[in-house]
Design goal:
By secondary structure, this protein is α+β, with helices and mostly antiparallel strands. It is built from four helices and three strands; from the N terminus they run αβααββα. β2 and β3 form a beta hairpin. The termini are far apart. The relative contact order is 0.17.
Amino acid sequence: MGITPRRSYFRPEGRFMMGETENRWLSMTEICQHLGVSRDTAIKWINKNNMPAHKIGRLWKFKISEVDEWVKSGGATEK
């Protein structure tokens, strides 16, 4: 019996496959990869643009459906 590798949730180009991740909490690294932005940009959006995020202890967690809806509604635009 060997160790089963973790299942990858990314397509080769780095985008999520929606059916497998829409209910899963994403980490800061995963949401930054999904959006194509740096960690600093994501933190700025959380603090200044009300990007939907949940702080659990010292970690930020995200629901991809909430973040995608926020982006579609113009939340990521400069004010």
